[in-house]
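The following record pairs a protein chain with its ligand, NAP.
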Amino acid sequence: MKKNSKTQIGLGLAALGRPEYINIRTDNSIDKSEEAFKKNTFSVLNEAYKLGVRYFDTAPSYGKGEAFLQEWNDVNSHSDVVLGTKWGYTYVANWELGFEGKHEVKEHSLKKLVEQWQVSKQMLPKLKYYQVHSETFESGILENETVLNQLSQIKKETGLHIGITTSGSNQKEVIVAALKVSVENELLFDSFQVTYNIFEQSTFSILKAILKQGKKVIIKEALANGRVFQNENFQHYSEAYKILNQLSKKYEVGFDAIALRFVMDSLQPTYVLSGASNKLQLTQNLKALNFSFTLEELELLKASQVNPELYWTERGFLLWN
Ligand SMILES: NC(=O)c1ccc[n+]([C@@H]2O[C@H](COP(=O)([O-])OP(=O)(O)OC[C@H]3O[C@@H](n4cnc5c(N)ncnc54)[C@H](OP(=O)(O)O)[C@@H]3O)[C@@H](O)[C@H]2O)c1
């Protein structure tokens, strides 16, 4: 890892633990058997560790994501890895290719927390982050005292960072509300996994403030689910693609490394997640560690942000394949 970077790159398992996930790829010819996915996941995890990645993010809804990570962790016993998982979504697609309907079902109940914690806690003591998966006002969790008390209990017993993850055009409002939640006069949430990238920067100020308070910020979807790559279906990003192209030539890296470095240089979060689905993507993503932008370049990229409503409406139309 580059020594002078405040942000570490972590690896997320959303695209590794199940055969179908949000993306905009056109080539779908990979082997989608569970065996092939497990082999690929282990090779990506090994390569990541070899290249200096120490934080790994998963969730029960990432198919075999938790099981693969746990097995890899048990087999290798690396003393310095940090694991994070979530609770609140269940994977229901059952490795069925072309599964119609939602692949993951949300339930922010005490029953679901207790059920999923029984499995996830097996990742202790490497498990350090335990997050409410996709906190929203609608799920009512911020007012659900029994769930909040249970999370506080887990925090007391294990010392885990209890966090939330957010998605949607009101990420900022959800974070502000979560920051106020306390149990027995102690603030509950100390880690925030949030979408932030060149197109979606609406959480910039609140995340800066959170970091100043010493809380943890983990950035997901730094590549806007692949939308940062030049794509004729997204003409409204053509100005941004020009800038990405210019910088990618200058630094001799792909658009992915430019987008990841933007997160690191503009926000300096605790971690930014690579969502690489294979070793090649991972090595390309990690090139973000080898350079940094001038202030002028950063300003150019900052100007690529779009209205969050537009960003999230568009994300809602991306396919799972
Ligand atoms: N808490 C939550 O609700 C939540 C939601 C989303 C993500 N996350 C976490 O954040 C992590 C990262 O997010 P994400 O994967 O959803 O989004 P992302 O990082 O914006 O996009 C990742 C996708 O970009 C493509 N990609 C990456 N490097 C590439 C390269 N060099 N060349 C071509 N394509 C490349 C891959 O698509 P292909 O697979 O199509 O090749 C990959 O799946 C996840 O693994 C997960 O841990 C959490």
